[in-house]
Amino acid sequence: MNTLIVVGVILVLVVLFVITMYNSLVRLRNQVDNAWSQIDVQLKRRHDLIPNLVETAKGYMQHERGTFEAITNARSQAMNAKSVSESSQAEGSLGDALSNFMLVVENYPDLKANQNFLSVQEELASTENKISFSRQSYNDQVLFFNNKIQVFPSNVIAGMFSFGKRDFFEIKTAAEREVPKVDFSTDKQEKTE
Amino acid sequence: MWELIRVNKRNSVILMVLMTLVLLVLGYFIGVVFFGPNGGVFGLLIASGIAVILMLISLSSGDQILLAASKAKRVTHDIHPQLFNVVEEMRIASSLPVMPKIYIINDPAPNAFATGRSPQSASVAVTAGLLGRLNRDELQGVIAHEISHILHRDILFVTVAGIMLGSIVLLSQVFLRGMFFSSMTGSQRRYSAGGRGGGGQAQLVMLIIAIAVAILAPIMAYLLYFALSRRREYLADAGAARLTRYPDGLASALEKISNDPSPQLSSVNKVTAPMYIVNPLKKKGQRKLSNLTSTHPPISERISILRNMSGGAGFKDYSASYQKSTGSKRTVVPASAFTQDKIEQRQASIGAKRQEKVERQLHQVGDIMRKVNGFLFLTCVCGLKLKVPPNYKKDKIKCPRCKRILDIKNPQG
After folding, report:
1. Is residue B340 very low, low, confident or very high in pLDDT (cuts 50, 70, 90)?
2. Which of B122, B250, B290, B359 qualifies as a cystine partner to B116, CB 3.0-4.6 A?
3. Segments making up each domain of chain B, as ranges
4. Residue in A38, A134, A191 closest to B350 by CB
5. With the C-alpha atoms ordered B202, B203, B208, B209, is the resulting torsion angle positive or negative?
6. Cβ of A35 under 8 Å from any chain B Cβ?
7. Which of B351, B316, B322 is nearest to B138 (CA)?
8. Do A42 and B92 touch (CB under 8 A)?
9. Active-site entry in B138, B146, B255, B344
10. Local structure of B342: helix, strand or coil
C-alpha cells in the first residue's frame, strides 16, 4: 500500500515536471517566432515611410530623379519578394539606396531645414535602428532557445516533442552587415571622421 | 538573462524578509515600552498592519505616487519623437512585451528613472535637462539602462523596498520623538507605574533596548537597501551595454551627467534617490562618499568599466572589465547569465557625433515642456513661431511681427 503511494507521488511529480518543462519550451519558441515577426513589422514600416520621404524631398531635389527611382524600385522589389533570400537581397539594396539618398541630401541645405523632412528623417533613422535591434533580439532569443534544448534536462523533453534548433539571422556580405547609416550631421567635415 | 532575473528576484525576497523582520522587531520593542511587558504582541500587530497596508498601496499604485511626487508628465510620440523612438528601439532590443509609458520631468538637472510593478506596466521618466544635453547615442544608453532595470525586475524592488524603508524610518522617528517629549513633560513615570522594584528595572532595560533598536533599525534598513541597489546599478549598466552593443554611449552620458553644473533635482529625497540612474543628491566638496552609505557606485568607476570593455558588449565582457577596474575578485554578474557567444560592439552612429549647441537644445527643451503643458504652436506666414498658452481663450491672435491675424482654431486658414 505504502509503496503504491510513493510510486504514485513520484509519477505525479514527473508528469508535473514534464508539463512545466514543455510549457517553458513552448514559451521560448513563441518568443523566437515573435522576434522574427518583429523584423517583418519594422521592414514593413520602412516600406511605408518611403513614399512620405520621397514626397517631402521631391520638391527640393528636382535634379535627383535617379536617386528617387533607385529607392522606389528597390522598395517595390522588396515588397514583391517571394522567397526569403530574394527578400533579404532586396532589403539590402533598399538600404543602400536610402543611405545613398541621405548622402545626397547633404547638398540641399533648404531641405535639411525643412521641419517635415527632419521628422521623416528621424523616423527613418529610428526605423533603421529598429530593424537592426529586432534582428539582434531575434538572435538573442534563438540563442536562449537553442541553449535550452541542448542542456539537460530540458533536452530530453525537447527530444520527446521534437523541438528543433533554430537558425541565427546572419547577414551574408560585409556590405550588408552594416545597417545603412542615416546621417544627421549638418556639416561635412565631421563626416570624414 | 533568466538566471539573472531569478537571482534578482531571490535577492529581493531576502531583502523584503529582512526588512520586515527589522520592522517587526522595532514594533515589538515599541509595544513593550508603551504598553508594558504584554504589549509586545500588540506592537507587533500594529507594525505588521502598517507593513501590510503600505505594501498593498505600493503594489497597487506605488509607481503613480512616485511619478506624481517627481512631477512627471506623460508624453506621446508627437511631443518628443526622438525620445519615443529611442524607447521603442530599446523595447524591441530587449523583447519587452509592451511599450513602457514615457514621462518627462520639467527639471534642468539631467537624470532618469524607471518605475512600475512589472514589465507589463512599467514607466520611464527622464528630465528635460537630460533631453537637452545628450545626443542620440547617449540617450539610447540611458534608456537602455532604465529598460534593463525593468527587465531585471528592479523597479518593483525599489518601489516596495523604498516604502518599507520609509515606514521603518517613520515608526522609529515617531517613537524617538514621542519618548523625547514625554520625558520632557515628566510623564515617563507612567511606563514604570505597573511594576515596583525589579519590575521597574526590567522595564528600564526594555526601554533602553527599544531606544537602541529604534536608532539602529533605520540604519540597518538603509544599509541593506543601499547594498543591493548598488549592485543593481552595475547590473543595469551591463544590461545597457548588452542591449545597445555600444557601452561608450552610456559612458559618455554618465560623464555629461556627472559634470553637469545644474542644481540638484528638486523633487527627490533619500528614499527615492536609488531609483535614479545617477545619485540625484549632490554633496558639495565630498566626492568620495563612504561606500556603505552611497546608493550608487562611484560614477567614475562605472564610466571606466564601460570604457574598458575592450570590444565586447556581453555580460562576460562587463564582468571582466569590472574585475580589472575595481581589482576585486567578485563577479558582479552571476556567471550563470553568461552566454558562450561573443557579442560584438557596434560603431557609433555617425550623426551622434554632431553635438548641437547646448543653448539650442535647451531652447528646444523649453518648447517640449510647453507642448507637454498644452501650449499651442502656430507658425505665421512671416516665419515667426507663436507659442500660445493654454489659458488663452480667444479664437484669433495677432502676429507680433507682421501684425497678421491668425486663426487659432484652424491654424492653416
Report:
1. low
2. B122
3. 1-357, 358-407
4. A191
5. positive
6. yes
7. B351
8. yes
9. B146
10. coil
Identify which of A169, A170, A165 has the alpha carbon closest to the alpha carbon of residue A148: A165
The CATH number for A82's domain is 1.20.1440.20
What does the alpha-carbon distance between residue B139 and residue B106 come to, in Å, rounded to a whole number?
17
Known active-site residue B146 = yes
Contact B353 A181 (CB under 8 A): no
Confidence of residue A9 (pLDDT cuts 50, 70, 90): very high
Question: How far is the C-alpha of B314 from the C-alpha of B238, rounded, in Å?
Answer: 8
B268: left (phi over 0), alpha (psi -120 to 50) or beta: beta
What residue type is assigned to position B16 of the chain?
Answer: M
What single letter denotes the amino acid at residue A84? V
Answer whether residue A48 is part of any domain. Answer: yes
CA distance B324 to B44: 47
CA distances (Å), origin A52, targets A9, A63, A72, A110: 65, 19, 11, 18
Length of chain A, in residues:
193
How many domains does chain A divide into?
Answer: 1
- Could you read off the pLDDT of A131-187 as tens digits, one per residue? 888 988 888 888 888 888 888 888 888 888 888 888 887 765 444 445 555 555 444
Domain that holds residue A113: 24-192
Q: Does a structural domain hold residue A1?
A: no
A18: in domain: no
C-alpha cell belonging to residue B128: 528635460
- Tell me whether residues B95 and A137 touch, CB distance under 8 A: yes
Q: Which three cell numbers stand for residue A172?
A: 551574408
